[in-house]
Amino acid sequence: MNAIATITTTLKDWESDQEVRWCPGCGDYAILKAVQRTMPEIGADPAKTVFVSGIGCSSRFPYYMASYGFHTIHGRAPAFATGIKLANPELDIWLVTGDGDGMSIGGNHTMHLIRRNLNCQIMLFNNEIYGLTKGQYSPTSRQGTTSPTTPLGSVDRPASPAAFALGSGARFIGRGFDVSKHLPDVLKAAHAHRGAAFIEIFQNCIVYNKDVFEDFAAPKGAEDRQLWLKNGEPMLFGSEKTGGVKGIALDGEKLTLKVVEVEGGDWQAAGVIVHDVTNRSVAHMLVEMPFGPFPMALGVLYDDPRPTYEDAVLGQDAQAREGKNTDLKKLLAKGQTWTVSEDGPEL
Amino acid sequence: MATQIADPEASIKNHPETVVVRFAGDSGDGMQLTGGQFTLSSALTGNDFATFPDFPAEIRAPQGTLFGVSAFQINFGSTEIDTAGDAPDVLVAMNPAALKTNVGALKPGGLIIADTGEFTKRNLEKAKYESNPVEDGSLAKWNVLAFDISALTLESVKPFGLGNKEALRCKNMWTLGLALWMFDRDRAPLIDWLNAKFRKNPVLAEANIAALNAGHAYGETAELGGQLHKQHIDPVPSPAGLYRTITGAEAVALGLVAGAKLAALPMFFGGYPITPASSILHYLAGLKEFGVTTFQAEDEIAAIAAAIGASYAGSLGVTSSSGPGIALKGEAMGLAVMTELPLVIVNSQRGGPSTGLPTKTEQSDLYQAVYGRNGDTPMPVIAARSPGDAFECAIEACRIATQYMTPVILLTDGYIANAAEPWAVPDPDTFTPFPATFLDKPNGPDGMLLPYARDDKGARPWIKPGTPGLMHRIGGIEKNPGTGNLDYSPQAHQAMTDARKAKVDGVAKSIPAQDVCLGQPGGKLAVVGWGSTFGPIHQAVRRARAKGMDVSHVHVRHIWPLPENLGDLLKSYERILVPEMNTGQFKTVLRDQYLVDAQPLSKVSGQPFAIAEIEAAIATYFDGAPGNAGGDEVGPNAKQLPSIESANP
């Protein structure tokens, strides 16, 4: 987020005149709406907002936002964003990428943007498949995924985008999914974070990987399978109606997380952890927490800002310029020179 | 001291106009530093000069090995110098390996100065010498001055209490002192330089100065068997003014700074370490006060992508690399062409495909620059011919990029990047500014924004994100000719492909007509060059003309688009010879563009052309007859294709 004056807009102001070309029923539609709904709420200015994307279904996103937009090349959006931000730090940059774009061909750039801590929001749409190239398995596809390139099932283990981001030094990790009503809240928190804010958004590819997140994203049983994290509040999920309230606690012997039953609302007695978004150790456990034995950790998993890359670079630039000669004439004549006159050269 | 005497007539004691000296030693002997300081001293004496640093790819190759030899050649004189010289007159060999790898180039009768302190059994073995060449008479066709420089150096720095290793490091200064004596040079600037360099360690400064003085005194006082004479090379008559030495890397960096200033833009430079291009990034990183932001990216692709991002946001984006790095940038160049954003891409060419010869020079990325991208992706290409010329070329690249909204490739090479030459410091007040403009309100009918409307040059408007009311989206997908909206239609792709080509072709209207830099339009033979072959071509043509041959030198700066008159100019000659440090790339472009019978003269040894090589090639067009006035029928060599006239009656 930038220290710029906020302005008043409506959702309509963020809809571009371009026809949206995703498959009917694609999760991207819901994410687009969530973003368009978020922008007025954070007071964003379309003239100072730039959506930057790579290549893939998700990367068509900028065309549909009535702001500035740059649809670049496969995997390299983070590098373009870095140049844009260093050239004009006033711009508010949203990076749009996918699991193939951001974790495979562009994994390198994602890592470096995060470790440098460029102030921007990174939305990684994770659908665990290559959509635009027609259904090949991706670096986040689960083992055994059958696809045109893995007719016998994929053998490589999937990468975890949130764990990758945190391992790369991220200071903000958010998670949501396409149709979740909480997604705008995660986006708002990411925008409020000064620095690289990484948001993994599970997105349903209805053509090539339909309902792959249904286990936790389906409305039915959601309470038991989604852990929505809120700063300062205990990590609770489930309900009395669905088989009991549960919580996440620390297994002190194994130094891992564990699921505990909460009796009579007494979560303290059960040892349930209070979520502290600045606790990096817990963040590491949350991004690694396997779905199945545990619910899916969603919301703001980690948020602890530190100085941004552009502030450091431009601060150094400004410092280097202070009181310095900026006369090109003098620069050209720098170093060891000599003058040729009619009597010959002299120092 | 061992001496071998050759024909005294051929020795350097005559009063030559130019002298070529090569310093050669182990990578750790400081030969590049010695050469650099000798160069400066030549400049201060008023000699014209050209240098050729030639060092191994390894940072510190094992001591004493043949592949660890580092050399620095300088050609200096009282006349105009265009090349680092074919064959050295003097070879300073700091060890047997340096002697072995360099002596073959030395002129017959030339002088070898060798440090016998390093001609130990072990070093001789490492250099694969079966017996000691300074004693066995095998160097008889040269003059040899071999003495124990190591011991003399140790003696001279004894009072400073340095360790043996540190003391021996002063050898290069001892040798430089002797060289300064030989050519009647002033030591004072070197002493100032040493004091500045070792400001934090005055003992080292004093030791090095003592070694320098001792080397000088040795020349003054020792009986050197008649081979060594103090000689003075007169200053070259140069126009009055301020001069400095400049390398190609410095010139490119300064030219970019000047170009960004003339365009009234901040510069963003994205780079990734690669030999020999890194020095441009190093240099610019120290020029932040001139509105330069440098970014060492995670890879070559990120470097160009960030530069394009910066251009999109309203800065002048620049990226730089060498062949393999440029290959990685190819896709992003396509995006810059497609989105029509200004960008300068500097390629300091090096040898070979893949890693090839990283520290050697070649001109083999011309195809890559002109043709090397997917799709129809036209891009202007400019080639610098010398370190000083690289300054002007960099400004020209900035002009074309910002005026035409296009990426531009600037080709230099390892030779230009590292070599130094005297440079008449230009006055920036005399440069013509070309300020960039940004769209600030809608440019279409009824307040419509047309990001891909074109001006009379075919360029689209530059629109900075952040500008209210001009929000729009761009990208690499084909677009509608005016609105820039996605448009895959056959009409749109045809129209946009045509428009991109017409724009780049149109750059030719803004560049100077091709001149003939030696000779005249029309005649028997044109030697057509580009890039750093300028020096040897120019000298070879000069010599051939002095012998009466009807040959002219045409040197092309604008490789793409080519100057509008180039076709007619080339067709005015009967024959065209194109010397290149590749297997004939520019030759192919000329044949393709003009259907002329351009013939290649190819060299890909990692070394620049020798003047004599080009001179010999020219002579084949004149029956090799010296004094041939050029009036007779040219005897084509057997390999030649039909002449222009017979091919195009």
UniProtKB/TrEMBL annotation, chain A:
A Pfam cross-reference name: TPP_enzyme_C
Domain Thiamine pyrophosphate enzyme TPP-binding residues, every copy: 55-201
Signal sequence, start to end: none
The entry's keywords: Oxidoreductase
Protein name, as recorded: 2-oxoacid:ferredoxin oxidoreductase subunit beta
TrEMBL record, chain B:
UniProt-listed CDD domains: TPP_PYR_PFOR_IOR-alpha_like
Xref: Pfam families: PFOR_II (PF17147), POR (PF01558), POR_N (PF01855)
Keywords: Oxidoreductase
Every Pyruvate:ferredoxin oxidoreductase core domain range: 525-585
Residues covered by the Pyruvate flavodoxin/ferredoxin oxidoreductase pyrimidine binding domain: 261-431
Residues covered by region (Disordered): 628-649
Name recorded for this polypeptide: 2-oxoacid:acceptor oxidoreductase subunit alpha
Taxonomic source organism: Novosphingobium aquiterrae
